[in-house]
Specification:
Shape: globular
Oligomer: single chain
Helix content: under 10%
Number of strands: 10
CATH architecture of the largest domain: Beta Barrel
Radius of gyration: 18 Å
CATH superfamily of the largest domain: Nucleic acid-binding proteins
Structural class: mainly beta
Amino acid sequence: MLKNPIPKVTNKFQFRAIGIIYAQFTPNDAEQLNRGFLIDGKGEKIETVVLGKALSLLKKFIDLKKSYYWIVYPKNKNTQNLHLQVVGIWDPYQLNDFPNDSSKINSSKLLEGLNLTDNYFSVRGELVFVNTKKKEIVIKICSSSKSKNLKNRNFKLVIKGELSLELLNSFVSLNTHRDGNALKLINYEVIEKNPSENN
């Protein structure tokens, strides 16, 4: 069974911001592998932090001279500076329990079979701001973690794209694509329109 790098949504109002990117990881410091950059095929650099579980995978299995599919959480303050947090590495043959036979199917083909592509990001949250001039929208994502640190629980993502002002405060599900340091809206679905107005 091929494990999907971006799991299916488990509940209608599940907040999330998660993506997959094929790139090479270059740490800032050979002694400290948790901070650095992901560099994609076009040479674009994205500031990256590797989180706990992924860090042990990185140390054990990853050849820093090669590119891999990284499962990442995106963060940004605007559409010019994307910051990624690596939560996993998707390598169907080396790191998953996928049959490792000689007729290896190209990983990007396997990804397509899961309806995913390189640089795809799934974003689900509340539409809190629409900038019609700049053609940007802001989605608020609430973390489900039970962490005591409230400051990091909610965050906002700025996405290039247009949504109607009428959808403000609605819970939306977006399919986005990374282009350089920006996430661009491909399409969206309104999960619940302006829930606060119905109370």
